[in-house]
Amino acid sequence: MDAKLSNLQPQKKAILIALCISIVLMLAKFVAYFITHSNAILTDAAESIVNVLASSFAFYSIYLATLPKDENHPYGHGKVEFFSAFIEGTLIAIAGIIIVFKSGYDLIYPKPITQLFEGASIIGATGLVNLFIGYYLINTGKKHKSITLEADGKHLLTDAITSAGLVIGIVLIKLTAIYWMDSVISMLLGLYIIYNGYKLTRRSVGGLMDESNIDLVETIINILQKNRKEPWIDVHNLRAQQYGADLHIDCHITLPYYFDLNQVHQEISEIDKMINGNADRKTELFIHADPCLPACCNYCKMKECPVRQEPFRGEIKWTVENATKNQKHFDQ
């Protein structure tokens, strides 16, 4: 538990930095709106409110992830990170919808816009800050396997992109004096925000519903294939679930039926050590041992098998297709 707590300290630090900076940037953007009365700038300012709310919830979710397993949460509390990402995606989408409707109203009933260059300067500066903080959160999230930090970082990168588009739009409005472009730009940015909110929500729902992560499964299968031993006749019914930074895997492994319980335990323990020694995150394995059958002999590599009934013909390479099915490989 001490190791887990120390691993989460960089995550807490990163999200706390993002939260404090988000509050400052939100205030700066509202200052820009009040001096310009630009809908496009209001769009960016409204999204900053979402940034602050999302970072606040992200900080709380990372705190929950530090809590130890208990009777009600035998897999720990890591899945709260998916819920955090879902909340953030939902807030982003709601902000985008509000922005689109507000911009549509002001397109019909326009308001005067002033001091656009000053407003553009403020928005440009906030965009650069969000760009650096976004990359910082994404890199920290990838390093520590935190979907919460990655989600918050991608959100800030989206904010930086919209700010860049906003600055370009404001300059065009000022140069052309076509002021209705303000609401059009705002609506386009609102649609882009909705799209990003959908993508983030879709990913989080997949995690909450234990959607199969093919990349994770393929990584584990490759490790097993690269380090496979003679007694490991086949691996099947392999499934992976992610709980925050931790990975939980269960699978069936076919072993020689004449192995005693000590030998079976030793083989399973070796697989556990091998996965945790090669995978890039803490992994908890639940391995069910199946006895071999005569039909397994043709792909079994045991050289001194006392019960072999037919000769070895060739190894069946473990892949996502055969290792995830709930059947021994002779049934393929």
UniProtKB/TrEMBL annotation:
Q: Any idea what this protein is called?
A: Cation diffusion facilitator family transporter
Q: Which residues form the Cation efflux protein cytoplasmic domain?
A: 217-292
Q: Which UniProt keywords apply?
A: Membrane, Transmembrane, Transmembrane helix, Transport
The Swiss-Prot or TrEMBL record describes its family as follows: Belongs to the cation diffusion facilitator (CDF) transporter (TC 2.A.4) family.
Which domain of life, per UniProt?
Answer: Bacteria
What NCBIfam families does its record include?
Answer: CDF
Organism name: Pedobacter heparinus (strain ATCC 13125 / DSM 2366 / CIP 104194 / JCM 7457 / NBRC 12017 / NCIMB 9290 / NRRL B-14731 / HIM 762-3)
| Listed InterPro entries | Cation_efflux (IPR002524), Cation_efflux_CTD (IPR027470), Cation_efflux_CTD_sf (IPR036837), Cation_efflux_TM (IPR058533), Cation_efflux_TMD_sf (IPR027469), CDF_Transporter (IPR050291)
Cellular component terms per the entry's GO annotation: plasma membrane
Q: Which residues form a coiled coil?
A: none
The subcellular location is:
Membrane
